[in-house]
Amino acid sequence: MLVMGPVSGVCDTLLGFRNSNETQPPGLQMVSPCLLNAVVAWLPSIYLWIISPFYFLYLRYNNKGYIRMSCLFKTKMVLGFTLILLCSSSIIFTLWKIKGGTPQAPEFLISPTVWLVTMILAVFLMHSERQKGIQSSGVLFIYWLLCSLSMVATVSATVYQTQQGGFSEDTFRHLLTYFSSALIGAQFILSFLADQPPFFSKILHDSNPCPESGASFPSKATFWWFSRLVWQGYRKPLELDDLWSLDKENSSEEIISQLEREWKKLCNETQQIKEERGRETRVEPTFPSETEAFLQGHQNSRLPLLKAIWKVFSITFLLGTLSLIICDIFRFAVPKLLSFFLEFISDPEAPAWKGYFYAVLLFLSACLQTLFEQHHMYVCMVLQLRLKTAVMGLVYRKVLVLSSAMRKSAAVGEIINLVSVDIQRLMDAVLYLNGLWLPLVWMTICFTLLCQLLGMSALTAIAVFLILLPLNFIITKKRSHFQEKQMLHKDHRARLTDSMLRNMKIIKLCGWEEAFMGKILSIRREELQALKSSGYLFTGSLVSFYFSTFLVALVMFAVHALTDEKHVLDAEKAFVALTIINILNRAQAFLPFSINTIFQAWVSLARLAAFLHLEEVEPRAINTSSMGEECISVQDGTFAWSQESSPCLQRINLTVPRGSLFAVIGSVGSGKSSLLSALLGELSKLEGNVNIKGSVAYVPQEAWIQNASVKENVCFGQKLDIPWLDRVLEACALHPDLESFPAGIHTEIGEQGINLSGGQKQRLSLARAVYKKASIYLLDDPLAALDVHVGQHIFDRVIGPGGLLQGMTRILVTHAVHILLQVDHIIMMVDGAIAESGSYEELLQRNGPFADFLGQAKQEEDDHSQEMKFSKVKKSSRNISESGESAGKTYSIMEDSHEKGGTTLQSQAEGTRMAGQLTERDRVQYGRVNAALYVAYLRAAGTPICLAVMLLFLCQQMVSFSRGYWLSLWADDPITNGTQQHTRLRLGVFGLLGCFQVIGRFGSIVVVILGGIQASQQLFQGLLRDVAQSPMTFFEQTPIGNLLNRFSKETDAVDAVIPDKFKSFLGFLFGLLEVILVVVVTTPLAAVVVLPLMAVYVGLQSLYVASSCQLRRLESVSRSPIYSHISETCQGGAVIRAFQAQDQFLVQNDSRIDEHQKTSFPRLVADRWLATNMEILGNILVFTAASFAVFSKPHLSPGIVGFSVSMALQVTEILHWAVRSSTDLENNIVSVERMRDYTKTSKEAPWTLPHNGISHTWPAMGQIEFRGYSLRYRPGLALALRNLTLEIHPQEKVGIVGRTGAGKSSLIISLLRLIEAAEGGIWIDGVNISQVGLHALRSKITIIPQDPILFPGSVRMNLDLLDEHSDDEIWGALEMVQLKSFILDLPGQLQYECSDQGDNLSVGQKQLLCLARALLRKTKILLLDEATAAVDAQNDLKIQAILRDQFADCTVLTIAHRLHTVMDCNRILVMDNGGVAEFGSSSQLLAQRGLFYRLAEESGLI
Fold first, then answer.
1. Do residues 707 and 1124 lie in contact, with contact meaning Cβ atoms separated by under 8 Å?
2. Cβ(620)–Cβ(690) below 8 Å
């Protein structure tokens, strides 16, 4: 604080009192006293005065609330005022001395004055920080640190003066020095502590706030605030509740809104610019066709997204860059300090303190480099998280507004790829963006330093580098081609995998698992081939840079030594040059990696931008202004699925009065569903006006069900109204189902309603709409999936004139002709236009298309007219339950509930983990990764490859050691007559060893890549097979997000990350062994410090890995709900928009992202905690090597010392990266663990059996026999089928009827062996099906399910997946189902690409294609599950005729949803309570007046 000392001797040169014989204290001989005093007085003050204006500006705009006066603050203020008092005392004392006539040096007055003013500023800063809520000040910490260092020098000088007898001459100033030093030391110690949180701070109300905000500055700098969580994770596995809450600045609510605001602003600006230029094109670029991947094109669309990201995150990024620049200043200080150190070693006369002084400077410089570098990494990684949050949110918001055409183009799998892979690559670019320019600065500085060290010979290094540089640009350009190719294959694979997982039910029913696996693995092989080619090129790029670095050293040393014999290569030149070249090596390795990462990010940015520019639903397509009595009005409307496609609806004029019931009818593909989509605003409006007044509820033709409870599905985010909910459930005939569910309305429904029947899903979807109490209801054929009596109940109690929706405006699309008499108005659609409209009587009188439609459906109408004689459906719950809805599912919750009352509830509770819960959360493993996991990965890679990798890395490191040792011998060669002997020999061997090392490095990396690809292929194939061989119960209980996570993110980690981490770990491990060997051999005393340091390293790694691995697992698990939610939203976008529930879904998505980031943030801090502490310990090893080299200087040669210290300087980075790469490897090997999660889950019976004893033509007749057959769904549940014994004759047509839960679906399940028998067996043509492979069995039985399923691919592929039929046969099948002309009109005809789920076709068209698929299979046994529910009456009659004709010689089992469809069957099987109640012809059963008679009576057939 104060420069103390006697009058004579402190600044004697100024006063003329200097004694030339007087010695100075050790350590200060090279610094004059006046310089010392100036530094002590001015350095801390200059720092504080320069930083204060900026700091005050920061405080002004960052007010966190004031902090109440604490004991810590009061103590700091007391110490501060005491120091002010001491400064004042020093000034007064000096003035008193001057007044007394004693001459005083000017600094005795100037220095205390400077300190006084600065101390007042420091105290004022402390007060300001308290008012602004700063708990720990980094500015003042550095200030007190500088003051403390100054005081060390001052006290040293004062103590020396005291020893020289100066204490008695200037006692007062000596005492002031000691008191001031003690107070400054106290302030410095107190600056390690943090004050209490600000008053009214949110942290006070947070149950688990992040400790960073309350940590002191030193704790923040070294990340020690994280230590508590590390220790907690070491003692017990971390759980989600142990993790901190997200700070506001890292929350999705804060970040997403910023990026969304900038993105919309830039898009609007772009639109304005285009409008000003008079372009007629839209803002969005040309849209792809419905089946074209959105990746293609849109190359210029990335710039607005890049600008938006830069505007939001640029300040944070630039602050991180500033830290990196400061770090590089200290990085380049190290070679200079090493040069001074080796100069000291070479000088036998140099004093020892000089060496220790250089050792300390090396240590401090390395530590500061570490702190600034880790701060840069921390800032960038926090920025990565924020970027991930922002872009994820932007993608999800885009999903919510995608137009119908674009939803068909952007498959769910591709969107998951965007979120999992592309956003990750964008995040990687944050760390490597500075790598585009910073390595060039490093190279420039390195070449400058080399020129200073070796003279003009360093210029040859520049020439070598420039010659080799174009090679890497060629490699990078070539590699980009393979990367784009890989991403296309990845998208294709993700799309097909997603479709396979979602449609596993129909795939298993048809035995297509191997066919799909083959297609996916074929794409996978092409993807890995592109990855392999890219990896080879990247290896060549890395090795070429390494080779260029070695070549630089070789050429420089050769030119320097050979051009002039007087040029000697001593230790200073050799090892300082190598240290500089190591920096150059890092720059040269960093540059291609950065270019590669940035290029990948550039490609991913284009993909993200292309997706964000896809066409959206038009927000202004629907006008909501008041229209008087009209509720819906369409005038001259022309609509298309996209702006680029041809119109699908033309000349639409429609007026719907408030409270009326309209019916929309027409044949398949006539535009009925499109009309509802147009009213919802889902279609692009090309012409006309659409006006809608009031809220809208929508029931889609294919029910969309959330993975949530029944209550949540019905309420759909609205306030719970129990009486109204009860009325809705009763009206929608859901009460009988709820009584059977294990937890009633709290029962969880699986994804896509997988555990519900088609009818249950449709009624649940209808209940959701009714509960909304909307003004307008758009109902897209909700009655098609229901039994007639249930459908009539729904119409009477919900839709019809006396239903819950009476008085509301209703537009009903239907094929049910019998209800048309009860509607107010009928719209007849033909070829995308309204052919005619009016009341039932009006249309009949016109004798137009409507009359023709009724005439063609006469038979169907007659059947329904009979049913309508039954005027009122009984109110009994058994009368409103569906006869056979459960046939459309693999098995439903309902099938488990064939027993009534309490027995059902009890059995269901036993069958689930907890009442009502169906799906399982992603499992979290605990503890360290098992060594068996590494063995499994290495086994997958192959033993020969593993042995080759170890051998190559060992040989390479041995050559590296030999090269360094050989250089030390060269540097120690004696100098004779100004020259060194054997220069050419030394140079030749040095070059030869370097070439061997380059070859070894290339070989080792290539073998690692080959092993990684081999392992990746094996693990992916194993995962795919494990999932495909799982039973249907697995898919009902496992959310799709869990599976997609493994097939996308975890697969990507196994593909790219794990091989890279293995390569890094082995390289750093062998490098670490080399460094330890060099340091211990050259300075054996260093082993005393090295061994304890190794123990500390192992301890730190153990602490870190325990927590880091668990955080990695939690992070992986928290990612799955995000994928599931995105997938669910993609499928239900139209419903979400119709219900205006976007805000609700945005909140859900943001909360899932926050939950994920809550696990990601501690993991990134854990990395920084490890890196900082490991590097500081590594710096201690550098200090140890240098100090022991000074201690053993007489016994060591300069070459050996240079070799030792230059290697020790690398140990900081090598040790850190060795531990870091091993930990990263363990963290990422968790992906292998997760890909192997399903190896031990239960599997189906074998697909094929080697000797099953059946002929190729089996079954030849189609006879089916049940012998004492019983079935249960899960252990502990009651039997679903009980002792079933019956025989179905060859070519017999059997209808299967019964109430819900009677066992109809169980009968179908048993035939296809989706669940194995509990007792007894089934024989087909005399063969026990349990002795037949599953695929052999399922390929011999054809089923047409209620829900038509198409896969992404061509029409031909969907009809003939196994490629077994000719085109003529396919055209024949299409002609039979009335689709030939439709397919001929499509672009590409049979090669026309169906979108995911066949969304670019109507439901009726999809059902007809499924029928055509069945016609091509033409097996002896056919199972029908209401195959014509989605087609009109005319086509229904035609299809029934086709079935009777084409399958006349087949055994046909038809599950009846409408009894009239099975009345003409040979026999009817009536199921009840899992057994056969009745079995006979319809006439026999009606005569018996049993259960079938009652069912017929309820349906109005009698």
1. yes
2. no
Q: Which of 1045, 1015, 1059 is nearest to 1152 (CA)?
A: 1045
Give this prediction's pTM.
0.72
Neighbours of 1099 (CB within 10 A): 11
What angle do helix axes 943-971 and 983-1028 make, rounded to 10 degrees? 160
d(CA 1247, CA 1022): 16
Task: Look up residue 1227 and give its two tokens.
Answer: 């963290």
Provide the pairing of β-strand 1451-1455 with 1467-1472: unpaired
Helices (H) and strands (E) in the chain, counts: 50, 23
> What radius of gyration do the chain's Cα atoms show?
40
* 3-class SS string, 756-794: CCHHHHHHHHHHHHHHCCCCEEEEECCCCCCCHHHHHHH
* Residue 794: both structure tokens together: 């729904």
Taking the C-alpha atoms of residue 1290 and residue 1037, their distance in angstroms, rounded to an integer, is 38
Q: Within a 10 A sphere around the Cβ of 460, how many other Cβ atoms? A: 18
Averaged pLDDT, 117-123: 91
Distance CA 278, CA 276 (A): 5
pLDDT of residue 700 exceeding 60, the answer is yes
- The whole-number pLDDT of residue 632 equals 87
Distances (CA, A) of 1493 to 878, 1245, 1304, 1470: 14, 40, 18, 10
Joined together, the tokens standing for residue 243 give 């993790």
pLDDT tens digits, 425-444: 889 889 889 988 888 888 88
CB-CB contact of 137 with 217 (8 Å): yes
Work out the angle between the directed axes of helices 302-346 and 1142-1191 (0-180°, nearest 10): 10
Residue 1020 tokens, joined: 């992916």
Distance CA 905, CA 896 (A): 10
| Single-letter amino acid, residue 615 | E
Residue 171: how many CA atoms within 13 Å on its side-chain side? Answer: 1
Which residues, in sequence order, are CB contacts of 626 under 8 Å at separation 6+?
693
From the list 1303, 1254, 1260, the residue with the least C-alpha distance to 1278 is: 1303
Peptide bond into 1345 cis (omega under 30): no
- The encoded tokens of residue 46 equal 């200059």
What is the distance between the alpha carbons of residues 1331 and 1334, in angstroms, rounded to a whole number?
A: 9
Amino acid identity of residue 1082, one-letter, is: T
| Kind and range of the H or E run holding 628 | none
Instruction: For residue 1259, give Cα distances in angstroms to 684, 1116, 1421.
Output: 52, 48, 8
What DSSP character marks residue 915?
A: T
Q: Are 1286 and 1328 in contact (CB under 8 A)?
A: no
Report the share of the chain in percent with pLDDT over 90: 8
Sheet holding 1264-1271, edge to edge: 1281-1288, 1264-1271, 1319-1324, 1327-1328
Q: Are strands 825-830 and 833-838 parallel, antiparallel or unpaired?
A: antiparallel
275: CB partners within 8 A, 6+ apart? none
**Dist CA 998 CA 271 (whole Å):** 54
Tokens 């949530």 correspond to what residue? Answer: 708
The pLDDT of residue 289 is 39
Select from 648, 765, 754, 618 the least CA-distant residue to 700: 765
Alpha-helix residue ranges (DSSP H) falling in 62-137 = 71-99, 107-132
Calculate the average pLDDT of the chain.
Answer: 79
853 within 8 A of 820, measured Cβ to Cβ: no
Which pair of structure tokens corresponds to residue 1010? Answer: 């080959």
DSSP E strand stretches across 101-220: none
Lowest mean pLDDT: which of 18-32, 144-158, 314-328, 1226-1240?
18-32
For 923-986, the DSSP string reads: P---SSPPHHHHHHHHHHH-HHHHHHHHHHHHHHHHHHHHHHHHHHHHHTSPEETTEETTHHHH
